[in-house]
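Extended Data, panel c. Modelled sequence:
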Amino acid sequence: MEKDLVEYIAKSLVDDPSSVIINVVEGEKSTILELRVASEDIGKVIGKHGRIAKAIRTVLQAATAKSGKRITLEILD
């Protein structure tokens, strides 16, 4: 569910939605979502001063609050 949410948000923001790749790394206590986009779209996902990236992380935390999972979003270039 979390992967689908981040994928939907990222594809809505970028110019090349086919380049959006999300890798899920499961750990014992947490899950890491690694987001990759095209190099020309990285600024659209991060935003000025990281505001869009912070907003995506906030939505992700709100979506997983009831489940008690700890999920981290990493934006890779």
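The longest helix spans residues 51-63. This feature is highlighted in the accompanying rendering.
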